[in-house]
Amino acid sequence: MRDRELFYLMFALLVKTFFVIFIILFAQIGLSPDEAQYFTWSQALDIGYYSKPPGIAWEIFLGTLIFQNHELGVRFFALLIGFLLPIATYYLALESGLSKKLSFWCGIMMAFSPLGMASSFFATTDGSMVLFWALASIVIARGLAQDKSPNYLLLGFVIAIGALFKWPIYLFWIFPLFMKRFWNASLIKGVLISLIGLLPSFIWNWQHDFGTFKHVFFTVKGADNSLAISQSNLLEFIGAQVGLVSPILFVLLLISFVYIIKHYKTVSKPIKFCFISSFSILCLIALFASFKKMQGNWAVFAYPAAFVCIGFVMIEKKSYGLKLVKAGIALSIILFCILVSIPYMQLNGLPVPYKLNAFRHNVGWNKLPQILKEVGYNPAQDFLFGDKYQMSSILSFYSEGQKQAYFLNLKGIRKNQFSYWKSMREAEIGKTGYFVLVENSPHLEKEPEKIISEYENTLSQYFRTIQFMGVKPLFVVDGKVVKGAFIFKGVDYNGKEPGESGLY
Q1: Which of 61-65, 176-180, 394-398, 410-414 has the lowest mean pLDDT?
Q2: 112 in Cβ contact with 16 (< 8 Å)
Q3: Is residue 78 a contact partner of residue 122, using CB atoms and an 8 Å limit?
Q4: 234-292 pLDDT, tens per residue?
Q5: In angstroms, rounded to a whole number, what is the distance separating the alpha carbons of residues 199 and 305?
Q6: CB under 8 Å to 251, separation ≥6 — which residues?
Q7: DSSP for 266-320?
Q8: Is the C or the N end of the chain the one with fewer CB within 10 Å?
Q9: Which of 22, 141, 13 is nearest to 81 (CA)?
Q10: Alpha carbon distance 194, 212 (integer Å)
């Protein structure tokens, strides 16, 4: 075979894909609230949504079209992205001048790092955005390797597709703008082509008071305008990066960065680009994390190029590097297997502390249909609702008939996609609704009577009668309920709603 290394990489990815499918089907790790939210979007296809562009909803719609409204259907395209992203990293390494053997290991690092495993497992916007960022990086690396202007029209097309998932992909244009030697008319055309990816969301926002733009602005700005050190989460952000690439590979990345800085003048232009694009992103977001809270996943698009840097330094330049890379990959696989095994061990009576379960927000949802049936919920006559959009999304997926639940903003929290859909007042007056609130340990044990009393009083404003149906166990560890659902039945909804939130 002409490209034996690519064949080996694809074989490894196939094995990984079947392993992840097994986990999806049998590990009892349900959808995260974000995945359930994207599922609700996919059931109401649109050209835009409140907090994200439409790509993730279209993606899940196609997946569920093939595999029905099942967890595998929701995550089908995540499996595909998890397969393609390491291949894109492989080609980025090749275009950066690395040998096929080194490129193979760059692809393997991406595939089996925690980031790569999560990209195959969870239906999120991050995986798709990182894939198209990697493809855009290939275009630049190829141009630099050939010492000519990159194909800006192709670059614009790639960025336009990536923008259907996350807008930060437009930051990629910063790098060509610093390549003054290669400025030409095609650069402007490429930028204009890339803006097509913004068009669906822009039209949706034009129709909905620019809700997404306000949401992004207030999310980035934070609670206030000050730059207070007390708001810093730098150590938490760094810890998240260690978790994304695994401890050993993260240390190798730091060593690689130091090596490239020391030998900067002698490394090739594509390697310089991989270094600059990954190092600058990580440093910039770490700098912001010194003043404002930054999410760990906000830097994920740095890693395709970062793994190329590791391959260039630790495997090509260091005699001992490949052994450490292999150790890092092995540790990643072991850690992932342990993490996905913990819920299964807990469900089967092994005394593993609940706090070690990294999937606390995913487990137990498969019990909701039976619990709701036991308390009398009839999807043909009744409706479901919550006071958090996450819970409303979970109820929309994990309920008989998968009827869309409602969001009743009892706490005055920020707007969300449910704020733009048909409300309870428009469709459910006079009907019976079931309200669900879920708590995890240790909050589950803290003053449950206070929670019950508070919600009985609050919900009574909206229904003729309120009946507390009990705290139903969703997840039990060592004989103790560690995740439970407080369920309230409201009879004869009167059409009242809380005041509209002005928060974004």
Answers
A1: 176-180
A2: yes
A3: yes
A4: 999 999 999 999 999 999 999 999 999 999 999 999 999 999 999 999 999 999 999 88
A5: 28
A6: none
A7: GS-HHHHHHHHHHHHHHHHHHHHHTTS---GGGGGGGHHHHHHHHIIIIIII-TT
A8: N
A9: 13
A10: 19
Measured between alpha carbons, how far apart are the two ends of the chain, in Å? 55
pLDDT band at 222 (very low <50, low <70, confident <90, very high): low
Per-residue model confidence as pLDDT tens digits over 295-319: 999 999 999 999 999 999 999 998 8
Q: How many CB atoms lie within 10 A of CB 251?
A: 14
For residues 83 and 15, the answer to whether their CB atoms sit within 8 Å is no
d(CA 54, CA 40): 12
Please report, as a single letter, which amino acid is at residue 99: S
Residue 288 sits at the vertex; the CA angle it makes with 303 and 111, to the nearest 5 degrees, is: 15
CA atoms of 446 and 427, how far apart (whole Å)? 35
Order of strands, sheet of 383-386, starting from the edge strand that comes earlier in the sequence? 406-407, 383-386, 433-440, 480-493, 463-477
- Angstrom distance (rounded) from CA 335 to CA 342: 11
What CA–CA distance (Å, rounded) separates 140 from 316? 22
Strand 433-440 and strand 480-493: pairing? antiparallel
Helix 269-289 / helix 125-145 crossing angle, nearest 10 deg: 140
Instruction: Write the single-letter amino acid at 233.
Output: N
The structural domains of the chain, with segments of one domain joined by +, span 4-334, 365-493
Which tokens is 246 given?
A: 């695994």
Q: Where are the alpha helices (DSSP H) in 113-246?
A: 114-121, 125-145, 152-162, 174-177, 185-194, 199-207, 211-221, 234-245
Question: What is d(CA 473, CA 486) in angstroms, rounded to the nearest whole number?
Answer: 9
pLDDT of residue 246: 94
Which residue has 């449910």 as its token pair?
Answer: 418
The position carrying tokens 């060509």 is 176
What single string gives the DSSP state of each residue in 443-483? GGGS-HHHHHHHHHHHHTTTEEEEEEEEEEEEEEETTEEEE
pLDDT digits (tens, 9 = 90+) for 83-125: 999 999 999 999 999 999 999 999 999 999 999 999 999 999 9
Q: Which amino acid is at 365?
A: W
3-class secondary structure, 488 = strand
Report the C-alpha gap between 94 and 28 in whole angstroms: 39
